[in-house]
Design brief:
Blueprint (H helix, E strand, L loop, with lengths): L2 H32 L7 H6 L8 E7 L4 H17 L4 E6 L5 H7 L7 E6 L2 E6 L4 H8 L3
Pfam families: Glutaredoxin
Protein name: Thiol-disulfide isomerase and thioredoxin
Keywords: Isomerase, Membrane, Transmembrane, Transmembrane helix
């Protein structure tokens, strides 16, 4: 095998390893570190909330690596799954740069924070670590 072929195989192998590492790292981040079903374009969804609407929307603020967020994650995901046909959910990673404006707008100072809205009006919220309280707000009750 000539030198050029050996280099080509080495570069190809490194590229495959890099791609597999990136995929594995993303999977680990999404399932272990984050694990929340983050909403893409959450800013657009929040900005489109209509004050005259009766539609319920629940905002969920979390931070990857937060131990309290990790404790609440199972309850939040289970409740979302149960109510996703009747309630719109917007899940926000507070580490995203777009999130800062909404942290200020809704007075979020700790995570996890769950805010239930009817239209664009706040009807309930919690920053509790109690899973029953979190489930109640996530369910829009």
């Amino acid at each position: 095998m000539n030198k050029l072929k050996k280099w080509g195989i080495a570069v190809f192998s490194l590229a495959v390893i890099a791609i597999l590492t990136a995929i594995g790292g993303t999977y680990y981040y999404n399932t272990e570190v984050n694990g929340y079903p983050d909403t893409k374009n959450f800013a657009d969804k929040i900005d489109q909330l209509d004050g005259s609407s009766k539609q319920k929307t629940v905002l969920i603020f979390h931070k990857p690596g937060c131990p309290d967020c990790k404790k609440a994650r199972r309850t939040i995901k289970k409740t979302i799954k149960t109510h996703q046909k009747t309630i719109d959910y917007v899940v926000i990673n507070v580490k995203k740069s777009d999130a800062q404006a909404y942290l200020a707008k809704y007075g979020v100072t700790q995570v996890p924070t769950v805010i239930a809205l009817k239209g664009n009006q706040v009807i309930d919220s919690t920053s509790s670590n109690n899973n029953k309280t979190i489930a109640k707000v996530v369910a829009g009750d």
